[in-house]
Amino acid sequence: MTFENFTRxxxxxxxxxxxxxxxxxxxxxxxxxxxxxxFVGNDKEAVKIALSRGAYAILSDRKLPVLDEEIAWLRTxxxxxxxxxxxxxxxxxHELRFCYLDKISIALLQKIAPRERFVFLGNDLQSxxxxxxxxSAEKIFISSDDRLxxxxxxxxxxxxxxxxxxxxxVKSTLxxxxxxxxxxxxxxLKIPALFLPRLQNLLxxxxxxxxxxxxxKCEFTPYFYPLFVNKALQVKPFGATPxxxxxxxxxxxxxxxxxxxxxxxxxxxxxxxLPVSSTIRxxxxxxxxxxxxxxxxxxxxxxxxxxxxxxLQQIVQSLKNLETDEQRSLF
Length: 331
Description:
Layout: H1 3-10, E1 13-14, E2 26-27, E3 38-40, H2 44-52, E4 57-60, E5 72-75, H3 79-94, E6 97-100, H4 103-112, E7 118-120, H5 125-134, E8 140-143, H6 146-152, E9 157-158, E10 167-172, E11 177-181, E12 184-189, H7 196-208, E13 225-229, E14 243-247, H8 254-264, E15 270-275, E16 285-289, E17 305-308, H9 312-330
Parallel strand pairs: 2-3, 3-4, 4-5, 6-8, 6-9, 7-8, 14-17, 15-16, 15-17
Antiparallel strand pairs: 1-5, 10-11, 11-12, 13-14
Helix pairs in contact: 3-5
């Protein structure tokens, strides 16, 4: 891209008259800069590294010293806004498609559909920028960040459809579901009935896009993952104990998860284990923690279901650490 087009699209200002007139790629890590790239950043030491690796241009939203007059030095009021402007131009030029899904639906989609058809965006603008700029035109971009989508692709699509294969429930337990879809029977899939409406919507979307799916690959997601434990909080095989820790990464989903459990298991003793920073209000016993090392407190609490608002892998690791610490104390 020429510096003339770049400044026109981003409203950035060219601070000097460089010997060069264009650049190749936009890079955020100075150690990944190749000769001819434009480096984006405000750190002086990072800029020096980018220059040593052959950067043709530097974009910053702070005042930096011009260390090399032969390359382009560009300044913008906001790096993020400049990136957004570039993305909007690139998206329109290539007619890229963007769809919104909530985080739980994205986790289900990643289980049942081929990932090569999608690009899943995160919450980091620079990482998302590179994924979008480098992806092929046939990809469908999926995000749970509606604010980001509104900024880069006004009029983005919501992944929902009223037409598609119907899920016909047959039976379910609190954690497993059995149902028919298009005359095919699926028994005891690892998806709670709570999420079947989301799955129904996904199947309609995938059929609309003519994308194949495999429901046998349904698995518990980090947004509702049951861990059966004994009194010592040691993880046991599925269904082996009366006590269950339910990892629930999404704080916003806690009310519906709790409502689902209390509706389908009104006899159960249920509690929530939430970070001290949590502002969510739920109608059950709540225990707050600063770190997951405090999971040890659950040994003193009588419960059938304990909903833990944290990352699944960190919960599992914390349980392993508790077990290791207990074994050491015995010796």
